[in-house]
Amino acid sequence: MSKMVSSNSMRYCLVALLLALFALQVFLTSRQTSPAYDEVAILPAGYVFLKIAWWQLMPERPPLLHALSALPLLTLNPRLDPKGPTPRAQRRPPGCRSHSLPG
Prior knowledge:
mainly alpha; elongated; 2 domains; about 50% helix
C-alpha cells in the first residue's frame, strides 16, 4: 500500500515539475517573441470597444474576442484620441460603407 502511495506522489511531483517547467518556458519565450500577426489590429480595436463601445474598427468580426484580448490594457490606460488618425473603416474605397468615430 505504501509503495502505491509513493508511486502516486511521485507522479504528482513529476506532473507539477513538468507544468512548472512549461510555465517558465512560456514566460521566458513570450518576452522575446513578437506579437502574432493580428494582435496589432485586434488589441486597438478591443481597447476602443472597451473604452467607448465603438466596434467599427474591425466590423468584419464580432467584438468579443477583441474586448477580451484588450482587457489587460485597461490597467495601463493608454491614451485614446477619437480625433486622431483616420480609422481603417474610413479609408475604404468609394462606394463602400464607411463609419466615423463618435464624438
